[in-house]
Design brief:
single chain; nine-stranded mixed sheet; two-stranded antiparallel ribbon; 12 helices
């Protein structure tokens, strides 16, 4: 049980850190951004940097350009897939886990077409592909693979059904598979190859796709600010540590008006070097009217300005319809999420199946105690 009085005391101890005034750092970052824009040689200098400890983006268009996004005035269909899971229970002798993928199809301005909602559970038992027990990391990686696979199949299905209508497949999160950077080599290679294979199929099928990040904490544009402050000597940390807590959206808030977007930047994180050229991650920021969102797209889309504008239009329209967050992403999450009663049903049915097969499940006393406390 939480002791609320002690909690209040603890919160008071860290209030100075939680509610520190960030204004000076943000003002400095925004001033530096304007200086970067005014420096016609800055991009050239950035291209010479190879030892930065953080990802440094590159770009082609004018850095100070902002592009207005027209209101959607055409029919389109928005698709999304999300995933949720039940991890293996270490208190249960059975090595079993569940990944649930939820899919949504939302047609707009199209006669005789209805909203479609799907939920597809996949159960994994025993060992994984490497003959190892399933782990939390392994399940997370597998979930992303299933999301991409479901997105591919849904995209092909909808393209055939809505052949003359604009379509966009949206995912929540990042196209940059940051989570694989810290994984062991065999795990990284296994899932990265699986992800890229599916992304390549999406490319060959020419299915428009993007990833949306709400309230992004990214600092890639801030890498440029740091480089400016230290005059490209990245070892002089004291020269840029004052802006370490500033995020990209802090700059974009002062640059973007509602329903506008930034230019497109290329990502150069350590994991992105493994992507083939046509799948390399690119990103842009856009003002949805409620927040600064980050949209990530593969290179084959980033190189098509009309495709980028179409994606921005649909994303903003989805945010308007969703009260600030793309409604298709929210609905996909609702289809995917595994709630408490669902988990209890999962474990209850496992137990029932075991009894029917004369198999007595071994469950730790700790787990039994948590499920039914006695005094």
């Amino acid at each position: 049980m939480l002791d609320r009085l002690k909690l209040l005391i603890e919160l008071q101890k860290v209030a100075g850190q939680l509610f520190a005034d960030p204004s000076p750092s943000y003002h400095l970052a925004r001033d530096v951004w304007q200086s970067i824009i005014a420096d016609s040689t800055f991009l050239y200098k950035v291209r010479q940097v190879h030892n930065a400890p953080w990802p440094v983006p590159l770009w082609q268009d004018d850095l100070d350009a902002t592009l207005s996004i027209e209101k959607v005035a055409f029919a389109y269909v928005a698709l999304s897939v999300d995933g949720s899971q039940i991890y293996p229970d270490r208190h249960n002798v059975l090595s079993c886990c569940l990944i649930n993928t939820g899919s949504v199809v939302l047609p707009y301005g199209i006669e005789n077409k209805r909203v479609e909602l799907f939920s597809d559970p996949t159960v994994f038992a025993g060992l994984d592909e490497n003959q190892q027990p399933f782990t939390t990391d392994g399940v997370n990686c597998k979930r992303q693979e299933l999301e991409l696979r479901a997105g591919l199949e849904l995209g092909k299905k909808i393209r055939n059904e809505y052949s003359a209508v604009a379509q966009l497949l949206l995912f929540d999160g990042s196209l940059i598979f940051w989570h694989l950077s810290s994984k062991e080599t065999h795990l990284r290679d296994q899932f990265l190859n699986a992800y890229l294979t599916l992304l390549d199929e999406l490319y060959h099928e020419k299915i428009p796709i993007c990833w949306y990040i709400s309230m992004p904490k990214s600092k890639e544009l801030m890498s440029l600010v740091r480089l400016y402050l230290c005059n490209f000597d990245v070892d002089k940390k004291e020269l840029y540590e004052s802006v370490d807590n500033v995020i990209d959206s802090g700059i974009m808030n002062s640059v973007l008006a509602p329903c506008t977007r930034s230019i497109v930047f290329s990502n150069h994180s350590t994991i992105s070097v493994y992507y083939p050229a046509h799948l390399r991650p690119f990103f842009f920021y856009l003002h949805t009217g409620n927040e600064i969102g980050r949209v990530e797209i593969p290179a084959w889309i980033a190189q098509d300005a009309s495709a980028v504008d179409l994606i921005a239009q649909i994303v903003i329209d989805q945010c308007i319809k969703g009260g600030g967050y793309p409604v298709v992403l929210a609905e996909a999450h609702e289809q995917a999420v595994v709630k408490g009663p669902d988990r209890e049903f999962f474990y209850h049915f496992l137990q029932k199946m075991g009894m029917e097969r004369n198999h007595t499940q071994s469950i730790s006393r700790k787990s039994l105690k948590k499920r039914g406390i006695g005094i």
